Amino acid sequence: MLLTGAQIFVEVLVEQGVDTIFGYPGGAVLNIYDELYKNSDRIQNVLTAHEQGAAHAADGYARATGRTGVVLATSGPGATNLVTGIATAFMDSVPMVAFTGNVATSLIGRDSFQEAYIEGITMPITKHNYTVRKVEDLADTMRSAFRIAQSGRKGPVLVDIPKDVTANKCEFTPKAPELIRTVTQVDEQQAKEAAEMINQAQRPIVYFGGGVRSAAGCQPLRDLLIKAGMPATHTLMAAGVLGYGEPHNLGMLGMHGSFAANKAIAEADLVLAVGTRFSDRVALNPDTFASRARIIQIDIDPSEMGKNVDVDLCIAGDAAYVLQAILPHVNKTEHKLWMEQIRSWQKVDYRPQDSETELRPHQLIDELCRQAGPEAVYVTDVGQHQMWAAQYLHHTKSRGFLTSGGLGTMGFGYGAAIGAQMALGRDQRVIMLTGDGSFHMNLNEACTAVSYHLPIITVIFNNSVLGMVRQWQTSFYDGRYSATDPHRHTDFVKLAEGFGLKGYRATNPAQFREALADAMKQDGPTWIDCRIGKDERVLPMIPGGGDINDIIME
Amino acid sequence: MKKETQNSQPADRRRVISLLVDNQNGVLARVSSLFCRRGFNIDSLTVSATNDPAVSRITIATHGKDQEIEQLILQTERLEVARQVFELNADNSLQRELLLLKVACTTANRAEMREIASIYNSKIIDLSPDSMVFELTGKPEKINAFLKMFEGYQVLELCRTGVTALERGGKHQHMQKPPQEVRAAQLPLPGTHCPTP
Q1: How does strand A204-208 pair with strand A270-274?
Q2: Are A398 and B194 an interchain contact pair (Cβ–Cβ within 8 Å)?
């Protein structure tokens, strides 16, 4: 059938199973939005306040479900506003397809109104990107974009569509979505070798990251931990893959990881690294990281092998398939002495003091877990609150903790929470944890939550300063608080009213308990301004470039 | 990729990497943007057509330790436009470069320069009363040696194309990406979905 580019755009989205997109209209995408208007029963466009919010929403949608998030923006400023969102998805390997309009092909390269060379701008922050120059290429280009986003190591793909391409007509033939491509085969010899190394080890440990969450499944990891009697520690990106309180789970590793997890990595004689990239927030000092251990690395992306830290054996493949191949060759054992040793480190690990009168971050989070429960999806911004959330939340869902790890994007949270809530429905409890610094960056998206009646509860850890940077200034810059005390007088309760949502303020644990209980009963978005001390720190902490010997516990 | 101690790292040496890439616009920008971002050093880079109109060959001369070159190859392979990326072994490949060299000359020194040219099998492709242009094709080492001979003369301009290279013998690279395995979209392995405990 003969269709316009805009009609083809809608048909291919439907063909790819897309029912929700996040976007913002503009001149270059008028034809597309006209077609979306006619097809609003098939595809819902979620209109955000800002394109950055739309990009984070598509990202949050993808993180919460594993499906590909879709964002649509107009040319020029619309396209450049996506950049932070795309880079965030790229660093955390989140499958996403970003569509941008562009000026008509006859106007490209002439510095036309709202023209930006978005293909060039996003080249280093996408898996791949395209400019569609003729309508005949549109359908297949869009299909490739969806295939690439979900194949191998997942990531964002951008498709730039000039306005005349959306108006021109061509013959359209529907196609079924392509199968995604991944590495399912495992070298049996390598699997045996890895199993042999695990069998020989006295003090083995698994260190896993976001790759396990993206893999075909995480049961093989759990099976391996039980069979080989190994403990496991995870990165920020993998919080929730193993549940809170599971006996093998030592919690988070790295700069703000637990003492026990960091100590165990330092003392281990074998580290099995799964779906993780030895980033500088975990392998803070690549020369001393796991220096007593032989290292096996499993990753779907061969370019991660030995990129940051030298490894002894690397196996390229989907973590689920590789671990499943290793499993039969592993001896059933328990490392009793090793586990006892780890338990003794856990006993001396950092514990914050409770308070009845003041709000303390860990108590806030405890109360959240009590009321919102293990089934809630927790979304964070970036900073101290993010680390507290990673440390103290009782993570139980593989896709229950959405956070910007690699890029560390302040302002990520509200958009992502909107995406997650749209993906999972209004019955799913979505909690957003943020700091007053991060929240000021993108709180404009509150209007979106109001428009779509999304019952997102936002907990603002308000210390009235830029806490994480301030903490570094306390520790490493002799308390010279340069540009971290903004003297803002934002009244979050009044601000909430202005947006048409409900705001609360809490200055002590009892107030917070009540405010949260009330917020849980509301249909629409709410937020709670929680006043915490400006000297609250995230502990433990290993300074950048350091190791377990440099850990700060008080 | 095995652990190596710092001092057993092999020293930097000249390496030639061949990239077979999709012949479409923007490919060179993608490759050079990647090298710039990852901090890979490039000595020369050439782009040329191949026997398949859909494929271009980019030949890169660079230098670095084994591990750095391995990263360069692996990172380049991640590009959607990259079909094959491989290092050409110095002993088993043909490497050529073209030089154009313009030297000031007088009737007095013209003869001695012609003699150098004839020893190196270099052609004189332009002659004017006060200058000569030489053309020379050869391995980069040969070109370096030839240029060294002109150190005593007044070189006005020179231009080198950078290395272009092929493997010896009947072996040839496949122009296609190695086939990827296919798994049904977003279906978990049987019995491996994550249960909530």
Answers
A1: parallel
A2: yes
